[in-house]
Design brief:
The chain is of the alpha+beta class and about 190 residues long. It has a single domain, classed as Muramoyl-pentapeptide Carboxypeptidase, domain 2. A five-stranded mixed sheet has the order 2-4-5-7-6, covered by helices on one side. Strands 1-3 form a two-stranded antiparallel ribbon. The chain starts with a strand and ends in an 11-residue tail after the last helix. The model has no long low-confidence stretch (mean pLDDT about 95).
Length: about 190
């Protein structure tokens, strides 16, 4: 199965792929190379969401999308917390190419909407309905939720940034070599 590369201008988004940097929960690079890929079904749902966000003067910034099984193991070995990570043997929707981690920013000036926590915050404050967030943050999270759900995405209650397609078991798990993304290869895509 081929994945679609998510890059501007075909996809009007900002990319800040966290696992290609040390700015993530592990404090280390997980990916050797930066890139953003999704299954065709997820890419089509993202295009719909992009249109809805544009209507509100907003834009998405993507932190992660397809995550090879090898990367899921690295995350699990660092933080084996089932409230925030799927065990690699079970199979993350990210490793199926149908999940995305993202936030919103304003189109005029690239100001990020305040979501109350950073991406990869593994605390109750990251829950969609956290008791520990302000009304402004709650409104921003609900705006993101509304855009994504309206475009056909499901959400994960414990992570305000995580969205996935329904019926994830209908999609196969992929390693980096299966997907051909080169995220985990020192020299990039083959």
């Amino acid at each position: 199965m081929a994945l679609i590369r998510i890059i501007p201008p075909e996809f009007d988004v900002e990319l800040a792929i966290a696992y290609a940097t040390s700015n993530n929960v592990t404090g280390k690079k997980i990916y050797c190379n930066s890139g953003c890929w999704l299954h065709e079904d997820a890419a089509n749902a993202l295009l719909i969401a992009i249109g809805y966000a544009n209507d509100l003067g907003l834009k998405f910034c993507i932190f992660d999308a397809f995550r090879p099984v090898e990367a899921q193991w690295k995350l699990w070995n660092h933080s084996p917390n089932p409230n925030f990570l799927v065990h690699p043997r079970k199979g993350s929707p990210h490793s199926r190419g149908i999940a995305i981690d993202l936030t919103l920013l304003k189109r005029d000036g690239n100001n990020f909407l305040n979501m109350g926590t950073d991406f990869d915050n593994f605390s109750e404050k990251a829950f969609h309905n956290s008791q520990f967030i302000t009304p402004e943050v709650r409104q921003n999270r609900y705006t993101l939720l509304g855009l994504m759900v309206s475009a056909g995405w499901d959400y994960y209650l414990n992570e305000w940034w995580h969205y996935q397609l329904f019926n994830s078991k209908n999609y196969e798990l992929l390693s980096d070599s299966d997907a051909g993304t080169g995220l985990m290869k020192e020299n990039g895509v083959e």
